[in-house]
Write a structure and sequence with these properties.
186 residues, Maf protein, seven-stranded mixed β-sheet
């Protein structure tokens, strides 16, 4: 197993990675600049290089994107800023003028050991409902998350309405973690 520290200040993300990798994951917060780009791989790679410079050992970072097909590449990796400004309700309203409510949820993990950058992407296709839907039972399903506005193809519920077990077959995160796990064990 390759050694790394997962760079996140979000305990929920660390817990999820630990659960889905099936092994304990050391994590720490590191203040890195967030590259403003619509290229998810560029954003994650930039973060990984900065994090490595701070902690001085192999690092793993993640970044997410949600792309509304009717809006080209937006919000993409800028989803955090769209969400802070518009909230989930406003994100749903962005698509009111369009018949195309298709969206793609993406995650990019970047592993950097100081020499080699490896990236692992997971994508899930879906749609955006007319209004947010969530059961609100966990922190990642709050009003500051886009999980309540993404219905993966083949599912009747948004990510925010699903239990962990319901979510796994539809999760962009699970797809990315599966690729990451294969690499870490090689």
């Amino acid at each position: 197993m390759k050694d790394f520290v997962f760079i996140t200040g979000n305990q929920n993300k660390a817990d999820y990675l630990t659960k889905w990798l099936g092994l304990p994951v050391q994590h720490q917060k590191a203040d890195v600049d967030e590259l403003q780009s619509l290229d998810l791989e560029a954003v994650a790679s930039h973060k990984a290089r900065q994090a490595f410079a701070i902690v001085g050992r192999p690092v793993l970072v993640e970044d997410v994107a949600v792309t509304f097909h009717a809006l080209g590449r937006l919000p993409g990796p800028l989803i955090k800023w769209f969400l802070e400004e518009l909230k989930p309700e406003g994100l749903c309203k962005l698509l009111q003028p369009y018949t195309d409510r298709r969206a793609t949820a993406s995650i990019m993990y970047a592993y950097f050991d100081g020499k080699e950058m490896k990236t692992f992407r997971g994508d899930t296709e879906g749609t955006v409902p007319d209004a947010p839907r969530s059961n609100g039972d966990t922190a990642w399903k709050t009003h500051l998350s886009w999980n309540s506005i993404f219905v993966p193809d083949g599912a009747p519920k948004t990510y925010g309405e699903m239990s962990d077990e319901e979510l796994k077959p539809f999760s962009h995160r699970a797809k990315g973690i599966a690729k990451l796990a294969a690499y870490l064990q090689s």
